[in-house]
Amino acid sequence: MNVSTNNNSKCPPALTALENVYDPEIGLNVVDLGLIYALDFNEEEHRITCTMTLTTQFCPMGESITDGVKQSLQSAFPDYSAEVNLTFDPAWSYERISEAGRDYLNR
Amino acid sequence: MFISPGNTSAASIKTTSHKVVIPFYLYASFTFLAATILLFTSGSAFFNHYFHPHLLALTHLMALGWGTMIILGASHQLVPVLTEGKLYSEKLAYASFILAATGIPLLVYGFYVFDMGEPAKWGGRLVVLAILSYLINLGVSISKSKGENIHALFVFTAALWLFLTAFLGLALVYNFTLPVLPKDSLHYLPLHAHAGIIGWFLLLVIGIASRLIPMFLISKYANVRLLWWIYYLINAALICYVLVFYFYNQAAVLFIPGTALFAAIALFIYYCYKALRQRIRKQVDEQMKISLLSVLMILLPVVSVLVIIALLVMEPEEKTSLVISYGFLIFFGWITALILGMTFKTLPFIVWNKIYHQRSGTGRILNPKDLFSPVIFKAMSITYISGFALFVPGILIAQKMLLNSGAILLIITAILYNWNVIKIINHKLSPA
Predict the structure, then answer these.
(1) I want to staple A68 with a disulfide (CB 3.0 to 4.6 A). Which of A50, A93, B91, B361 is the partner?
(2) Could you give the maximum distance between any two Cα atoms of chain A, in Å?
(3) Given an 8 Å threshold on Cβ–Cβ distance, is A21 in contact with B360?
(4) Minimal Cα distance from B7: which residue of A?
């Protein structure tokens, strides 16, 4: 798992919150799937920007997953607004899945 | 490091409302049950010519009411996924449903009683209008999408072939009472049938399956170049068939489009095999197993049509039992197997999105696969494969007992299918 951030103290609780967002087809959370690329905390504007991807650019559940990411960040950090910056560059790859995620998929 | 979403943002992929899509699924489910009952009651028709009224009624019930309706429903849902945009008009989608839902029973009734009068003509007109609405909706949605997309091209070309098939079909209905074509309707039947089977079903299924199968298997495999080859081969085979039909209608020449078609299907099977091999998730669920089985089941009608052509070359007398089994292998084999599997990959998502979308991110919630019963699905798969396996030899050796047993098992399959479909549609919010 490789998530870049500008705030090392707030990033872990944010990732814990994001572990509640699941890809409904795969049944794995977005953190273990490696969909989260970066978490940026703007302290002046009290805004969190999550840069993330999807397993496929045409994921029919994309909207549901990105809405879930926003909701979970907002409930973990009620004083902040949350936004998602969706990107496919670089595209998601198998290598981004965490060890726990691989164990789950190999069951 | 990361490029901002810009025009590649999946946030711009807007799912089509479930209200548009679910009526297509429900209609198709009930039609499947009706078709299996008709299969049972019309058993003796399978020992006659394929132009038998009951067989014509059954074929159109399966092709339009079952296959086309569910594919129209799924494709309205998948347009945003395929075009990376949104469906142009939900009103046109509703219009398409209402026109087809009204037209299909009228047309089927006309065939069943073999009266090509006003009910059949109105049925045909309404079906053509339904397809035209779909074609316009699809065409505008694609024209508004960004970039080149092979899957959308497959679907749009398939819709064009469907329109041509339906238009020719309407002309054939008229031709019974008013000679609008130079020869009788029976003469054009193979052209009408193959434009529909290859142009509509095969192109569309490959266009959608080539995106959905790797997506559901969570596979790393992608090969757009191979898909282009498949696209050209299928269209070339079909155009070649039309030319042979008009200019040199000799059985031996039919091997040319037949071979091109066989090559296209072999490449598609290879594509699915590679997607399966390069999957990330080890486990393949039951719905995907049935869907993958349907990919192999395409081979059955292809081999059967090659045998029919070979026999025609040796002896010009048509083997009607082989031709009838060819139709059965397509509609109750390949297309039905695909729908039985894919319904339970797509419909649960549609309903899940309606109920659980707002709950995403609030912890463990039910997954789409939890919306139907796996036990009913398993039972449905067993009765389907057994029913299919009994019915085909029943046609070939003209054995009524096999036909009846096969038909009963297929009725049970349809009941189990409907049971699970209704269970999904009626699903209410519940904890994981």
Answers:
(1) B361
(2) 45
(3) yes
(4) A87
Q: Cα separations (Å) of B149 from B84, B209, B216?
A: 9, 14, 19
Of B3, B358, B363, the CB nearest to A87: B3
> ipTM score here?
0.79
Average pLDDT, chain B: 89
- What are the pLDDT digits (tens) for B168-183? 999 999 999 998 999 9
- What are the percentages of helix, strand and coil residues in chain B, rounded to 5? 80, 0, 20
The 10 Å Cβ neighbour count of residue B25 is: 24
Helix, strand or coil for residue A81?
strand
Distant-in-sequence, close-in-space partners of B81: CB < 8 Å, separation ≥ 6: A58, A59, A60, B13, B211
Residue-by-residue DSSP string for A18-69: HTT-EETTTTEETTTTT-EEEEEEETTTTEEEEEE--SSTT-TTHHHHHHHH
pLDDT of residue A79: 93
Pairwise CA distance, residues A23 & B71, whole Å: 25
Instruction: Choose from B210, B221, B360 for mutation: most chain A CBs within 10 A.
Output: B360
Binary contact (B356, A107; C-beta < 8 A): no
Instruction: Return phi, psi of residue B220, to 5°.
Output: -85, -10
Q: What is the DSSP string of B54-87?
A: HHHHHHHIIIIIIIIHHHHHHHHHHHHHHHSS--
Supply B381's token pair.
């798969």
Instruction: Band the pLDDT of B148: cuts 50, 70, 90.
Output: low
Q: pLDDT-derived band of residue B5, with 50, 70 and 90 as boundaries?
A: very low
Taking CA atoms, what residue in A is nearest to B364?
A: A20
Interface of chain A toward chain B, CB-CB under 8 angstroms: 4, 20-22, 24-27, 37-38, 51, 54-72, 75, 84-90, 93-94, 97, 105-107
Task: State the smallest CA–CA distance between residue A17 and chain B in angstroms.
Answer: 8
In contact, B337 and B290? CB cutoff 8 Å: yes
B3 to chain A: which residues are within 8 Å by CB? Answer: 87, 89
Residues of B at the A interface, defined by Cβ within 8 angstroms? 1-5, 8-11, 13-15, 77-78, 80-82, 84, 211, 215-216, 218, 220, 280-283, 349, 352-353, 356-358, 360-365, 367-368
Range with the lowest mean pLDDT among B224-233, B290-299, B377-386, B401-410?
B290-299
User: In 10 A of CB B115, how many CB atoms?
Assistant: 14
- DSSP secondary structure letter of residue A10: T
Query: How close is the nearest chain A Cα to the Cα of B65, in Å?
Result: 26
- The shortest C-alpha distance from B425 to chain A (Å) reads 18
Q: How far is A22 from chain B (nearest CA, A)?
A: 7
Distance CA A97, CA B409 (A): 44
